Amino acid sequence: MAGQSRKWMILVATIWIQAFTGTNFDFSAYSSVLKSVLGISQVQLNYLAVASDMGKVFGWSSGLALMYLPLSVVLFISAFMGFIGYGLQWLVITQLITLPYFLVFLLCLMAGCSICWFNTVCFVLCIRNFPSNQPLAISLTVSFNGVSAALYTLAAKAINPSSSPLYLILNAIIPLITSFAALIPIVRQPSLDPLPPEAVRRDSVIFLLLNVLAVLTGVYLLLFGSTTTHDASSSRLLFGGAIVLLIFPLCIPGIAYARDWFKRTIHSSFRLDGSGFILVDVDDLELHKELLTREASNHENGLLDPLLCSDNGLVRSKNSSLGQSEGCCETVIGKDQLAMLGQEHSAKDLVRRLDFWLYYVAYFCGGTIGLVFSNNLGQIAQSLGQSSNTTTLVTLYSSFSFFGRLLSAVPDYIRGKLYFARTGWLTIALLPTPVAFILLAMSGSEAALHTGTALVGLSSGFIFAAAVSITSELFGPNNVSVNHNILITNIPIGSLLYGFLAATVYDANASSGLRDVVSDSVVCMGRHCYYLTFVWWGCISILGLASSVMLFLRTKHAYDNFEHKRTTQLY
Prior knowledge:
This protein folds into two domains: 1-261, Growth Hormone, Chain: A, CATH 1.20.1250.20; 337-513 and 521-570, MFS general substrate transporter like domains (Growth Hormone, Chain: A), CATH 1.20.1250.20. The protein is an all-alpha fold and 571 residues long. It starts with a helix and ends with a helix. A hairpin with a 6-residue loop joins strand 1 (514-515) and strand 2 (522-523). Strands 1-2 form a two-stranded antiparallel ribbon. It has 27 helices and two strands. Helix content is 71%, strand content 1%. Residues 1-21 form the signal peptide. The chain crosses the membrane at residues 63-88, 100-130, 136-154, 166-186, 206-225, 237-258, 357-378, 390-407, 419-442, 454-475, 487-508, 529-553. Residues 344-558 form the NFD4 C-terminal domain. Residues 7-253 form the Nodulin-like domain.
């Protein structure tokens, strides 16, 4: 029992780490001041945002460090990288020191790298302590990364609502303090024995409760963190309330004693056998592969329906064999389809598969474009004369990104009643993004800006959280760490290209705009500053939506086949 209680304490510590280390999401809260102090153009400011996102390119270094260093040491290396990266930027933005642009770029890169190192530590903690429910643990903790900006906004309001540079010093100090707070449960990690199936199901109920608590936390931050009418004393009380909500999961050991009651009242309404987050459960996957092997053997003996498999063993659609000629779309959809979920792909096999590139484009034109939008929120609000609402917009994006991440697990909780391929849910999640950009291009009102920000946050949050599961399902769980790192190379690329597009349009329209007398930097005012950017981003997001539709059509048969085998023969 002591070991089981400690693992829940470690989960809470992981939630704390994730909640306070999504520091890249509040970039727009201080970007305008940073631009003014450095006296740089919008394009140069974009390169600083790209530097932060480029930290993901060096995420592999954290895995290498874990091969030779204890987990606690890697945790504090992450904290001190962020402390140095953000701390020196704070000294620059407050004009206590002066650094050349190139060094500020390197500081942004270091700060971005620290976020990836924190994420790696959290993933390892979840995998070690929740081997049977690690997808649920990872999805829950990753969700809290999306709420970081809302927490930092409340913290900044509680100290000095008018100080934008304050975000940088908070970004430097709070993750370090959180690392010290999380150190005790991490150092005292229990040695856990494998859980029986009944215990795994009971843990799933506790994860359901934690998700409900996470939703309440998100609603709290959305309601109280996005308003600008609070004074410093009220903000301190609200920030204290948020901290209480983050500490409350420590009551989990007590909740564990009541889990039998929850099982009778709640658990029976949901299908929570094994992991509810990753569809390809390890045991189910092995049985699924065995069944397909038997079917292939039967096919050799002439016992398998020839309409289900082509000569090379890849899945074919029954409809495609009914006619002699196929259209272009049917050819693309039917060619080289996945035979089953969870089939392992090496990096070499991955880049040769059409499904991967459809997935890459969908992520590149969906989730990544949402991240770039959040980086530009400061300048977007400023150009529309809503600079005072910047922190509200940051909180709004952060909160809805958090809800999107939580929603990514909902399809699996309702899988017993409503089953749909995860690539289909990805397509649905991409729909709000083009709608948001069309709305922003059509109107520059405050309501349109708030609605568009919420829609983009919701969509991108879902994609960020669901991506690991989709990668595991389509290309194999054993190689997911390598394959997913290949996938997220689209983030720094998209950050550079989309940000450069926005900055170029901004600077072109600012040539006759206002000029900051202190830094001599040009400020663009009016809807035209981002109008063309929203139009281009909207068109690009539609391309991502089309790519996700193609991916869904190509993988639907593999998902349906897996679910059919699971429901009829695995249980």
